[in-house]
Amino acid sequence: MKVDFINPFVETINNILATMASLSCEYGKPYLKDNEQPLGVLTGIIPMSGESVKGSLAISFSAGAIIKISSSMLGEDIAEVDETCRDLTGELTNMLSGGARKLLWEQGYDFEMASPGVLCSEDTIHHDAPGPVIVIPFATKAGPFFIEVALSEKLERARLHQ
Q1: Among the ranges given (73-87, 98-112, 135-149), the one the predictor scored with the smallest mean pLDDT
Q2: What is the pTM for the complete model shown?
Q3: What string of DSSP letters covers 71-123?
Q4: 46 closest CA partner among 119, 108, 102
Q5: pLDDT tens-digit profile of 95-122?
Q6: Domains and CATH numbers, the chain
Q7: Residue 118 φ/ψ, nearest 5 degrees
Q8: CA distance 91 to 86
Q9: Which of 49, 64, 110, 115 has an alpha carbon within 20 to 30 A of 55's alpha carbon?
């Protein structure tokens, strides 16, 4: 997977958290995931498919991270992972995939996204692409979260901006 697929996800989540949750995050070195277990207590996943790419995106939050993000974004004190955190995980997944999709579209990649699903830590993540799943780990003061990207570039890459 090329770095031009990963950078839009990093840029988008940094913007979302800084503007909507007043939370900064640092990302670590991406690595290949070797199983289908979620890396957090809540995971949002969204399939992506189009002429140039096929795959899926997942974002998994630790309890501390999603509680802090939910509390900050909603302006209320949330003490535990609850339905509010679950709903917000779906919304964050939508925002992340939409923002990354816009940046990738500007690079010439065209694809559509379905509605996100939200998984719990007991579920498994099934990515909608053959090949490797790249994990980008993030650290916040409230705890870690992880973005997983599984994208396969199709042989005939459709360029929109020639």
Answers
A1: 98-112
A2: 0.86
A3: HHHHTS---S--HHHHHHHHHHHHHHHHHHHHHHHHTT---EE---EEEETTS
A4: 119
A5: 988 888 888 888 877 777 777 889 888 8
A6: 3-153 (3.40.1550.10)
A7: -120, 130
A8: 9
A9: 64
